[in-house]
Amino acid sequence: MDTIDVIIIGSGIAGLSAALSATENGARTVVVFEADTEIGGASRLSGGIIMGAGYGLQREAGVEDSAESFYRDYMNANVWNLNPAAVKAFCDESGPTIDWLVGHGVRFHPDLIFGGAENTPRCVAAVGQGGQIVNGLARKVRQAGVDIAVDHRVERILFEDGRAVGVVVGGEEIRSASVVIASGGYGANRELLAEHNPSWTATGDWGWYIGTGTAQGDAFGFAEQLGARIDGHDRGLRLLHPGFVRTFESYIPGWMVLVNKEGRRFVDESSAYGVLDRTTHSNGGVAWFVFDHQAVDRSTAGNTKAYKQVMPEREDRQSPNWNPAMIAEQVEAGRIHSAGTVAQLAVKAGLPVDQLQATVEAYNDGDHDAFGKDAQFVRPITEGPFYAAEVRLATLCWTGVGPAVTGRGEVMDTLGRPIPGAYACGEVTGGVLGDVYVGSGNSVGNSATFGRIAGRNAALSIAGVPAATSA
Ligand SMILES: Cc1cc2nc3c(=O)[nH]c(=O)nc-3n(C[C@H](O)[C@H](O)[C@H](O)COP(=O)(O)OP(=O)(O)OC[C@H]3O[C@@H](n4cnc5c(N)ncnc54)[C@H](O)[C@@H]3O)c2cc1C
Is there a domain that residue 468 lies in? Predict the structure, then answer.
């Protein structure tokens, strides 16, 4: 086979964006290798919510925003414990990337969404969720003459004389001018999770991953072959899960009361999941949902405001875990404790009796919730039976440890220098998604934006054009 211009490993939103961007920037031969039998990876399963600043749909909704403001919010939320150059490039190019997707026919609902705890809404949801973004990009990529080879797992990257020069697939060496690693996370690989995500691993049998089986973390091998630096530790978004059945529940009903092992509340329960992840983690990673019979009835009657975030295409969502049928089943199974008084409940759940009683009293009496929870979610806990269920940060959504990249999408060596011919983008990289998940859409935004940047630079490097942070 002749030398290919750009080889891309993985056909999620990062890989497909890189492929399209490479063709737009002069690459003549681009091949995408995909390990799975279908395209799309985690991106295909995703809600298709994307985050950015300063894009057309945001302006049309009358929201003033800027990349600079996004960058400050992002870095402050993560106490600057990230790769600042890479995050800067992401924030600068995130808005133009959403415009670029729209220009390529990807359709988004016009309503803006608050993805996390930000003051400015920065997210939109794709019509038809992540599958529509993947299919839309794949159509464009194929129209541009790119071959997407499914069921082709890249085994190794060829590294010669200090540069990436191709890959090995099915034992065959395939040469290229540049290689873009877009192989996603490692959520399906328990061994890598034990090494890189100890706090999720500590959830034991409760822990489960919502993505695809091909999220095996092959990039750690690629990084070793290239001599690349690995960024991040213990990073990845985790959702609270009660260990009932493995259903994906992104938001918990806001009327829940969440207490730590001391029986104290520690957060506004209607907060975004990135906030619940960090605050629960700071409280030992284990917590208890406490509620009463009224809350159960209200959830059935539908007159309790349960969710702060209303996502397009999911307006009528019902909690898969916190509904009367499931609660009855789990009380029977002993996973939910129930008792006639709060004191008895505390004993059954192993929580301090005095503190749990004091917590419930304060919650019931409070005119103004100590954590700022909006009154429409606050339901007093007054009518028995009372319930308590242990929850853990067990649902793993994405992983955040991987090869470090420059703001130009180049893979860095252990000294922080770009490795010639090697690029990476999306969930596979470390240093862009931080300890605090800035909000829904952060990951898809990162994948599309860095896909564009990496694809562009991988293509332009062939003509000797210096890499840039712009897409
Ligand atoms: C159910 C679900 C819902 C989500 N919802 C959202 C959301 O709404 N918004 C948001 O921002 N984030 C969301 N996320 C997270 C987000 O979807 C992902 O982090 C992001 O899409 C990752 O994109 P990617 O292209 O980097 O990786 P992926 O989409 O995972 O693509 C990587 C591809 O590489 C392939 N691959 C792996 N190894 C190899 C190899 N050796 N050779 C060849 N191919 C290989 C994989 O099979 C996969 O197809 C969600 C995740 C899930 C699972």
Answer: no
Q: Which helix (H) or strand (E) holds 278?
A: helix 273-282
Domain count for the chain, please give it.
2
At 302, the pLDDT band (50, 70, 90 cuts) reads: very low
Task: Give residue 301's pLDDT.
Answer: 42
CA of 308 to the centre of ligand 1 (A): 26
Q: Is residue 187 classed as helix, strand or coil in its secondary structure?
A: coil
- DSSP 8-state code for residue 433: S
Indicate if ipTM > 0.90.
Answer: yes
Position 152 in a domain = yes
What is the domain extent for residue 106? 4-235+400-463
Distance between Cα 447 and ligand 1 center (Å): 8
Residue 324 CA from chain centroid, whole number: 30
The per-residue pLDDT for 311 is 75
Q: Output the domain CATH number for residue 297.
A: 3.90.700.10
Mean pLDDT of the chain, nearest integer: 94
d(CA 79, ligand 1 centre) in Å: 26
Q: Residues with Cβ within 6 A of ligand 1?
A: 9-15, 33-36, 40-43, 45-49, 130, 153-154, 182-184, 210-212, 214-215, 218, 248, 397-398, 426-428, 440-444, 447
Q: Which atom of ligand 1 is nearest to the CA of 43?
A: 21
pLDDT tens digits for 418-433? 999 999 999 999 999 9
The closest alpha carbon to 370, from 261, 282, 257, 287, belongs to: 257
